[in-house]
């Protein structure tokens, strides 16, 4: 019921925003600002990537330090927060790099810029996939599954205690609700943009609709079959 209420409020809010902007002529072309966007987003992605890599090295160095008692507890708390920060920064870096590469390809920039954007995507993507391996470095005494394991999620939950499972599931539930609201908001914004700029975004709206159907169906089937 709460999820539906949030969903409804978001839809109504977006509806009024749409009508508020219907009278405006949005004629900003992505091609006009593509080059600047590429450098801005690419630079942000690179900075975040460096921060993620530095954070990984800090975790690895800290984990190898022999500590006992309160110092070890403090290190565990620091590692936990640092690992989450590194994961977040790494994922955002990868997203920005993909957006950068997409703009480069769509706007048909020079080959050198395309290669640089592709390299950035590969490195940031690799860093995002490497970060889960840090958990084995942080907790060598725990029987954590390999990331490549097809049952990684189940085994990770099985190796976690009750408190850790509660935190993970709570985070995933809030993320699921937020994803629904944000994707509906994106559909509304794309509709406004399509009407105002006369540049059809129907394909993007259709894809977002499919994503919404998929994630909601997957979620319901997952909890229904338990």
Automatic annotation (TrEMBL):
InterPro entries according to UniProt: DUF3169
Keywords: Membrane, Transmembrane, Transmembrane helix
Transmembrane residue ranges: 7-31, 37-57, 86-105, 111-134, 172-196, 202-221
Pfam families tied to this protein: DUF3169 (PF11368)
Source domain of life: Bacteria
Protein known as: DUF3169 family protein
Native species: Gracilibacillus thailandensis
């Amino acid at each position: 019921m709460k999820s539906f209420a949030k969903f409804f409020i978001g839809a109504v809010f977006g509806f009024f925003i749409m009508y508020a902007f219907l009278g405006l002529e949005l004629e900003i072309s992505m091609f006009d600002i593509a080059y600047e966007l590429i450098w801005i987003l690419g630079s942000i992605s690179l900075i975040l990537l460096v921060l993620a890599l530095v954070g990984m090295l800090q975790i690895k160095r800290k984990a190898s330090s022999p500590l006992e008692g309160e110092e070890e507890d403090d290190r565990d708390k620091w590692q936990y927060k640092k690992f989450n920060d590194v994961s977040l920064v790494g994922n955002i870096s990868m997203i920005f790099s993909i957006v950068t590469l997409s703009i480069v390809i769509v706007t048909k920039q020079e080959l050198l810029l395309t290669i640089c954007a592709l390299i950035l995507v590969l490195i940031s993507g690799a860093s995002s996939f490497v970060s889960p391996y840090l958990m084995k470095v942080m907790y060598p005494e725990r029987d954590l599954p390999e990331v490549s394991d097809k049952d990684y999620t189940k085994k990770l939950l099985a190796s976690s205690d009750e408190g850790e499972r509660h935190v993970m599931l709570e985070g995933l539930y809030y993320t699921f609700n937020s994803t629904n609201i944000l994707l509906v908001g994106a559909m509304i914004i794309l509709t406004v943009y399509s009407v105002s700029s006369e540049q059809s975004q129907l394909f993007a709206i259709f894809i977002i609709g499919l994503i919404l159907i998929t994630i909601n169906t997957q979620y319901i089937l997952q909890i229904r079959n338990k």
